[in-house]
Amino acid sequence: xxxxxxxxxxxxxxxxxxxxxxxxxxxxxxxxxxxxxxxxxxxxxxxxxxxxxxxxxxxxxxxxxxxxxxxxxxxxxxxxxxxxxxxxxxxxxxxxxxxxxxxxxxxxxxxxxxxxxxxxxxxxxxxxxxxxxxxxxxxxxxxxxxxxxxxxxxxxxxxxxxxxxxxxxxxxxxxxxxxxxxx
Amino acid sequence: xxxxxxxxxxxxxxxxxxxxxxxxxxxxxxxxxxxxxxxxxxxxxxxxxxxxxxxxxxxxxxxxxxxxxxxxxxxxxxxxxxxxxxxxxxxxxxxxxxxxxxxxxxxxxxxxxxxxxxxxxxxxxxxxxxxxxxxxxxxxxxxxxxxxxxxxxxxxxxxxxxxxxxxxxxxxxxxxxxxxxxxxxxxxxxxxxxxxxxxxxxxxxxxxxxxxxxxxxxxxxxxxxxxxxxxxxxxxxxxxxxxxxxxxxxxxxxxxxxxxxxxxxxxxxxxxxxxxxxxxxxxxxxxxxxxxxxxxxxxxxxxxxxxxxxxxx
Lengths: 183, 313
Fold this sequence. Notes:
- By secondary structure, chain A is α/β, with parallel strands linked by helices.
- Chain A has helices at residues 12-29, 45-60, 112-122, 167-170; strands at residues 2-10, 36-41, 66-69, 100-108, 129-137, 149-153, 160-165, 174-181.
- The N and C termini of chain A lie close together (8 Å).
- Helix content of chain A is 27%, strand content 31%.
- Chain A is globular.
- Chain A has one domain (7-160): Rossmann fold.
- Helix content of chain B is 36%, strand content 14%.
- Chain B has a five-stranded parallel beta sheet.
- In chain B, helix 1 (17-34) crosses helix 11 (285-304).
- The longest helix of chain B is centred in the C-terminal third of the chain and has 20 residues, at 285-304.
- Chain B is globular.
- Mean pLDDT of chain B is 93; it is low at 309-313.
- At the A-B interface, loops of A face helix 1 and helix 11 of B.
């Protein structure tokens, strides 16, 4: 599969601004962060959750708990995948009961990942509520799921691929749209 | 090749080092699930597995069953002693019956070496060998390796002594196949009558003195004296055996300070292992049981999900 870069929709500074705004929105919506915890969805939701936590600490002076969720065992497409995804650890080392949990992911697309993440989270306990923060909402939902906090709404075609890059895994920050081209 | 592409798990002998690592890596998050309040994930919903044990077992069978349940597979135990096997049904017909009931996977234990291999060739169902005669017991070796790796942080180049009845032990064979793939120095020790002369061909060293064999080892794996297989009188008495080969606290001093003691269970306390050692701080025997569930969950996950066709990512 050959991919061609079509457009950059967010650069390092843009990503930083979007995360700063989301951090403010999380604080505002929950009237502070006393009862809030962030849970990133593997893989790129992890570093994004860490960064949001750092921003929140800069603004409010409170360290919110941060966890990472591996949703592999909760995927709804496992029986149709031949190449098995490697299962990784879920690292939520705090009690989720009665907490406001903000799920964090890079791209919201069909909503199936978020569905799996909610199931995985509820197996860890009973949060008071679950909110959703995403860097990019690219549309094409297949389930009734909506994000509470969005970095950027980007209408896309289903043939396009939205790639979020983070320093931690990709060596740089940014969001690009790619499309599949025939050889 | 990834382990998930295999139809069956019949022995450690056929597995590559990468496949073993894949199973052990997958078992790490599975072990986390066991510590949760809700010990269940929906992964294998709609899959069915059956355990068929022609030999007695408590932990292996229960471990497979609960591992399947934690992953939401439906698990059934075929109780051989109360089944049509007693009416003279052939193994092949029993297998065929289970196949048309729609099971996706079968766990089989049999006193005759090679039975799981025969079954695997004669069915489309995936087969796991839970012990065949004196040949192999792959899931036991995998949980032993998991237990060692968890404590030692590596499997590479360790010195491991396997103590006891090597001749009849499928646990020993599977461990030897597995550990030597990681460059471990494996020593086997026991009475000469219980150490097959050919065993050195597997890349291990034979010892007849416990003290000598334990010198500087990282791990001691104590085997059970299988009383049910001691009809041939290969050693004079249990008393004499325990006099010479029962693992006692003083033996541990010969090994490395942080030596781990393993035992596949069930233990004969006072025969192959003293209670002080079995319950001592170096022992991981209880944890092996927990790890066994995690490792079997990993194996079931890798074997029972997914399509069997090759498709891309």
